[in-house]
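From the shared-data thread, chain only:
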Amino acid sequence: MTLRETFIKYLEHRVADGRPVFASHDMGDARMWVMYKSGKMCLQDTLSRIWRECRETGTVEVRDAKLPNSREGRWFIRKINS
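Structure, as tokens:
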């Protein structure tokens, strides 16, 4: 399983767990989960790139959920097309 596939499984797990909002600070948790499940080392930058690619290609459909007066990126995961 590739890092991309494992990251998508992480997003599916979050949504199933009732946490459909993904924020940029969640990337650290995603990294630990992906490394645990895949047994592969990865950088947060790698997962950030995968996350951006998933949004741009429509693999993950999101809606902006940014909080007022916050610089942090937040997205509501609407649908995962895996």
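The chain has one domain: 3-80.
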